[in-house]
Structures are given as structure tokens and as C-alpha cells.
């Protein structure tokens, strides 16, 4: 029997990064402390200089770069990337600051077993520069959303959101670090649920313990005590 068919067995994670990898670190640490019932099987980056690759190397985790600039189309990059991911036989693919839009063929191959964290309160501000856009719009709240990945960019069903207050003194960078601290709480939590077989995506949305999570995901509010 393979890992993916043994329901209580430890899951295999493949994590895709493009940058510094602080979210990646929260998974490396969560697995090391057995808070997440999983092993990080590989870390893959489209950016050979990504700090996330170094974090993986330090933790003794296989790490590979596959530079999108060496491919002549998005489809050919995605095909090579999906073959590389498949070679690690993952139960879950985690986008952790991964900065390349993925083609529908790629997404369909991993449907229901690929998650992303997006730094906004989706459905607000899909795409890039979310914190700048929220500040420019005069929003009072910002946050992050963990969602299953579907072909529609940042449009897949939400699993969990964290909300923070935008203070008058906030700029793009202070807001980004405030939100990032909450990303490190909600993303490992969602992955923990998946690895414990409590979370799944089906045709009518996301179920946690067989119950639908509400339309916008469960809200984790920073104004409440955290522990
Ligand atoms: N792909 C699909 N199909 N669906 C999603 O929901 C995806 C996805 C790929 C990545 C992460 C996403 C985010 O959380 C993500 C979700 C990159 C861009 C982008 O515009 C937008 C959103 C996300 C990731 N990328 C540019 C591109 O041309 C490159 C930008 C750069 O290199 O800085 O691919 O925000
Ligand atoms: C995080 O804020 C993540 O939400 C965001 O990039 C940062 C990565 O930080 N993701 C995107 O913007 C995806 N387009 P990290 O490398 O330290 O985890």
C-alpha cells in the first residue's frame, strides 16, 4: 500500500517557493515537532536564488530549482514541474510564496491536493500587490486566506482566513509583516487538518470534519487572544 492510501500514515508534502520561505519554515518546524503528521519530501523553486532552498538544505530536505526562464512556454514549464513533483509522490502540494501562475492542466492534475496562501482577505484583491491595494483603498482590515488551488487565480474555495486591523500608521511593509505573522499560524493549521484527514475539497466546497466551512472560510481574528 502506498502512503496516500494509508489513511493514518504520515503524509508527504512537496512545497513550492519563490522567495524567502518563512511559510516553508513553519511547515519544516511543524513537521519536526510532530505538530503536523507529515514529512517535507521536497522543496522546489522556480527561482534558483530563493532563500527557501537554503532553509530546506539546512533542514536536510531535498531541494531543487527549476528555472521557468529556461522554458519556452508556461505549458512546458508546468509539465516539467509536475513531473518533478510527481517523482516525490506527494499527498499535498503547498504553494508557499510561489510566484508563477499555473496552467489549468497543471492545476487539474493536483486538484484537491494543492493549497495556497494568499495575502489578502479573498475574494478581495486576487493577484499581486495586495497590501498596497488595501491601503490605497482606505480599507480598515487586511489579512490572508488559505485556499485550495483551482484554475481561477486565487479563486479556489477558502479554508481559513486571518484578519488584521490596518492602522493609520501602517505602510505596505509594516502591513505585510503583520499579516505574515498570522500566515504562520493559519497555514500550518490548515495543513494539519488535511494531514489528519479532516479536510477535503469536493464539488460543493470545502469540508472540515464532513461539515462545510462557510463561504469565506473560518475567520481567525487577530483581535482575539491567540493562545
Ligand atoms: N495558479 C492558479 N491556476 N490558481 C491559483 O489560485 C494560483 C496559481 C499560481 C499561484 C499564488 C498567487 C498568490 O497567492 C498562486 C495561485 C503569482 C501571481 C502572478 O501574477 C499571481 C498570484 C499568485 C502568484 N505571477 C506572475 C506571472 O506572470 C509573475 C510575478 C512575479 O514573478 O513576480 O506568473 O498571490
Ligand atoms: C507571503 O506573504 C505569501 O502570502 C505571499 O508571499 C509571501 C511569501 O513569504 N504570497 C504571494 O504573494 C503569492 N503570490 P515567505 O516566502 O516568507 O513565505
Notes on the protein architecture:
By secondary structure, the chain is α/β, with parallel strands linked by helices. It has two domains: 100 residues, Rossmann fold (3-Layer(aba) Sandwich); 106 residues, Formyl transferase, N-terminal domain (Rossmann fold), CATH 3.40.50.170. The chain is 30% helix and 25% strand. The chain contains six helices and eleven strands. It has an eight-stranded mixed β-sheet, with helices on one face. It has a three-stranded antiparallel β-sheet with strand order 8-9-10. β4, α4 and β5 form a beta-alpha-beta unit. α1 packs parallel to α6. The chain is globular, with a radius of gyration of 17 Å. The termini are far apart. The N terminus is likely disordered. The chain binds ligand NHR and glycinamide ribonucleotide (GAR). The site of ligand NHR has 16 residues, from β5.
Overall tally of domains: 2
Counted by DSSP, the helix tally is: 6
Radius of gyration: 17 Å
Number of β-strand runs: 11
What structural class should be given to the helix and strand makeup? alpha/beta
N-to-C CA distance: 39 Å
What's the CATH architecture name of the largest domain? 3-Layer(aba) Sandwich
User: Considering DSSP H and I runs of 4 or more, what fraction of the residues is helical?
Assistant: 25-40%
Amino acid at each position: 500500500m502506498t502512503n496516500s492510501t494509508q489513511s493514518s500514515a504520515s503524509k508527504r508534502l512537496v512545497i513550492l517557493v519563490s522567495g524567502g520561505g518563512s511559510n516553508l519554515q513553519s511547515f519544516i518546524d511543524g513537521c519536526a515537532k510532530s505538530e503536523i503528521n507529515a514529512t517535507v519530501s521536497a522543496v522546489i523553486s522556480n527561482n534558483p536564488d530563493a532563500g527557501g532552498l537554503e532553509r530546506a538544505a539546512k533542514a536536510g530536505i531535498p531541494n531543487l530549482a527549476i528555472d521557468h526562464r529556461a522554458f519556452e512556454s508556461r505549458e512546458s514549464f508546468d509539465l516539467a514541474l509536475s513531473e518533478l513533483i510527481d517523482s516525490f509522490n506527494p499527498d499535498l502540494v503547498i504553494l508557499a510564496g510561489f510566484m508563477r501562475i499555473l496552467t489549468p492542466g497543471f492545476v487539474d492534475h493536483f486538484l484537491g491536493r494543492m493549497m495556497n496562501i494568499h495575502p489578502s482577505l479573498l475574494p478581495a484583491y486576487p493577484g499581486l500587490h495586495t497590501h498596497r491595494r488595501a491601503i490605497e483603498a482606505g480599507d480598515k482590515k487586511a489579512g490572508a486566506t488559505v485556499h485550495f488551488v483551482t484554475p481561477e487565480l486565487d479563486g479556489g474555495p477558502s479554508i481559513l482566513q486571518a484578519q488584521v486591523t490596518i492602522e493609520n500608521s501602517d505602510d505596505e511593509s509594516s502591513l505585510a509583516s503583520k499579516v505574515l505573522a498570522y500566515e504562520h499560524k493559519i497555514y500550518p493549521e490548515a495543513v494539519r487538518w488535511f494531514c489528519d484527514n479532516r479536510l477535503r475539497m469536493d464539488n460543493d466546497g470545502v469540508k472540515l470534519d464532513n461539515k462545510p466551512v462557510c463561504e469565506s472560510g473560518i475567520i481567525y481574528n487577530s483581535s482575539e487572544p491567540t493562545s
